[in-house]
Amino acid sequence: MDKLYKSTRGGQTPIDFYNAILQGIASDGGLLVPDFAFEKKDLHALLKLDYVDLATEVISAFTPDGTKEEIRALAKEAYASGLFDEGVVPLKKAGGLYVAELFHGQTAAFKDMALSLLPHFMTYSLKKKGENREVMILAATSGDTGKAALEGFKDVPGTTIKVFYPIDGVSNIQKQQMVTTTGNNVEVVGIHGNFDDAQRAVKEAFASAKLKALCEEHNVFLSSANSINIGRLIPQIVYYFHSYLTLVRDGTIELGHQVNFTVPSGNFGNCLAGWIAKQMGLPVHRFIVASNKNNILTDFFKTGEYDARREFYKTNAPAMDILVSSNLERLVYFMVNGDTAKVKSFMDELNKDGIYRIDEETLKTIQDQFSAGFLSEEEVLETIKTVYVDHGYLLDTHTAVGYGVYEEYFRNTGDTTPTVLLSTASPYKFPESVYEALTGKKEDVYQAIDDLHKLTAVEIPYPLKGIKDRKVLHKGVIDKEEILDFVAKRIEEL
Ligand SMILES: *Cc1c(COP(=O)(O)O)cnc(C)c1O
């Protein structure tokens, strides 16, 4: 049986894995989802596998039959070629929570988990399809996707990459990481606008007839490095299994016992990957969806209403400053049992009116598996301080959201299921906020890194060492309305 991918909105003929990777987004504006049943995994058989072999088992459930050894080779490149330290995803303890550290890759944030592999998926798929066109990757970023995609795609033959970031909406470190990227096929552009504006423009670029015609003329096609690309989601399923199996190997839980995951969420790609792991047989009791002051997901999970007509806040957890959470569309698709007409009508409503509401029955199905909550910026800082003082563990601002929301969940429910906190970034990516949380004092970004290190002795991740002195190579800034024209110009220049 062929494993095909179809649009959540039903308007595209299903395509295979390679085309799904290359295309990035469905042609009708929907997101690509598996059109086949999730493969159930035998946990016992996975128990002894290292990260690469585990990734191979999980990922090949989504790739064409007979490709397992090819996937193993790609997984080796991504996870066993020196890009990650500390065994890819180490599991630590902080208070009552087990912390899965997803930030040991080459940009010190969880986006590396998928973006170390996506470029390999891309070149692999180009080869499988005998594709001779160049692929232009467009990425909108709230800070972390940009750098992880740049590192992943830089100097990869057959690809060029354009990254759009909100000029005032990312941390100083995130910005410095991006604008200092070397490589002959990369370009980083600041935009006047927020992440949602950038993401919308990129989605529009994929749908644009004018760009499509230009692409044909110049022998190039567009693809996405955002979590709208199914190639971002699939590698993220692996670390849910890995975290669980680590707890079993440590003797913390018995094989088959349930756990919870608390997930700092924005575009909802991380949490959705966990839900897919559950469909593949991982024993998960609940997912706790954690948001910052941009709490649109909290409201959705509590009321079934997705209302994007609200103020956008810039917070101290900027990678989660998002109002249009793309991957929620995939969750809704699964929760309405694949009724694409229903998904399409919700998304049409969202585009037209800025709001949609799911029915009570669907909401109940969702609430049976997901809880949700949010933290204010002050609560983020308080959580960082308390967890450090009480447990000696240093959280970044995003991971603190996951921690704090879990605490509230625990107070409300008394649920004693062992819970894994997904840690999405190193504290050194947001050093000003973390330093302020611990000391009450504000400091300049690089001073804060040094002083945080002196204060806590927490290791500075290798990608951030010496970052201050790197040369700024990308200075372009455009308006959000200019993104499409900008892409058109770059295609013409090819
Ligand atoms: C991207 C990101 C998130 C949000 O992840 P989603 O998959 O978009 O929900 C949370 N924290 C950090 C540090 C991130 O970079």
Write the CATH architecture name of one domain. Answer: 3-Layer(aba) Sandwich
Q: Could you describe the largest sheet, including whether it forms a barrel?
A: 6 strands, mixed
Helix content: 40-55%
* Ligand catalogue: pyridoxal-5'-phosphate
Q: Mean pLDDT across all residues, rounded?
A: 97
Radius of gyration based on Cα positions:
21 Å
Query: What is the overall number of helices?
Result: 21
Identify the CATH class of one domain.
Alpha Beta
CATH topology of one domain: Rossmann fold
GO molecular function: threonine synthase activity
GO biological process, one term: threonine biosynthetic process
Cofactor: pyridoxal 5'-phosphate
Protein name: Threonine synthase
What does this structure look like?
The chain is of the alpha/beta class. The protein has a domain at 91-109 and 233-466: Rossmann fold (3-Layer(aba) Sandwich). It is built from 21 helices and 16 strands. The strands form four sheets. It has a six-stranded mixed beta sheet with strand order 4-5-15-10-11-14, with helices on both faces. A five-stranded parallel beta sheet has the order 9-6-7-8-16, with helices on both faces. Helix 7 (144-153) links the parallel strand 6 and strand 7. Helix 3 crosses helix 11 (230-249) and helix 11 (230-249) packs across helix 12 (269-279). The protein is globular and about 60 Å long. The two termini are 39 Å apart. 53% of the residues are buried. The model has no long low-confidence stretch (mean pLDDT 97). Residues 109-111, 144, 227, 264-270, 319-320, 398, 424-425 line the site of pyridoxal-5'-phosphate. Keywords: Pyridoxal phosphate. One of its GO terms (biological process) is threonine biosynthetic process. It comes from Sharpea azabuensis.
